[in-house]
Amino acid sequence: MPYLTHAFRTLIGLLLRRPILGTCVIPLLPDGSIVLVRRRDNGLWGLPGGIVDWGEDVMTAASRELQEEAGLATLELDRLVGLYSKPGRDPRFHSVCVTLAVRVEGEPYAADPREILEARAFSVETLPWTQLCHDHRDHLNDFLNGKTVLA
User: Fold this and answer.
1) Structural domain tally of the chain?
2) Is residue 106 assigned to a domain?
3) Residue 130 lies in a domain
4) Active-site residue list
5) What's the whole-number average pLDDT of the chain?
6) 95 inside domain
7) Is residue 34 part of a domain?
8) Cα dist. 48→1, 4, 64 in Å?
9) Among 55, 42, 52, which residue's Cα sits nearest to residue 100?
């Protein structure tokens, strides 16, 4: 019985004390604008994205989250922007985020009003830099500077 207790504790530790894998999407409309969503939980702007579900690859998760949050369809991957893994980058939990820039089509809207207040296209000049959530400023800066990062 002590072996089962130890095995159970080890299993729980493996499941609950590991970073969560997520994805962020930099959606690029044909006119070059970037779509951001305004989050209901904090009122700040951010990149569409979320947690990769069990049995799902990162690109599928990114496309699903983009559709669920901003109502946009993914046309193609533009490029990998980076892998962001610093503890504390997301104030809710330790997450590792794979950020992708993708070419999209459609008109952005708040597809999930339980999570998203608004979805809007911004030119690079009008991005709300002082109102971005988490570390999304870093993601956008890295994208605009042509970087691919491991941070």
Assistant:
1) 1
2) yes
3) yes
4) 118
5) 94
6) yes
7) yes
8) 46, 42, 10
9) 52
Q: What digits encode the pLDDT tens for the residues 95-123?
A: 999 999 999 999 999 999 999 999 999 99
What are the tokens at 24?
Answer: 């962020």
Token pair listed for 64: 């699903």
For residue 108, give the nearest of 46, 44, 27, 50 by alpha carbon: 27
CATH of the domain at 102: 3.90.79.10
**C-alpha span between 33 and 46 (Å, rounded):** 14
Q: What is the domain extent for residue 71?
A: 19-150
Residues with Cβ < 8 Å from 15, sequence gap 6 or more? none
- SS3 track for the chain: CHHHHHHHHHHHHHHHCCCEEEEEEEEECCCCCEEEEEECCCCCEECCEEECCCCCCHHHHHHHHHHHHHCCEEEEEEEEEEEECCCCCCCCCCEEEEEEEEEEECCCCCCCCCCEEEEEEECHHHCCHHHECCCHHHHHHHHHCCCCEEC
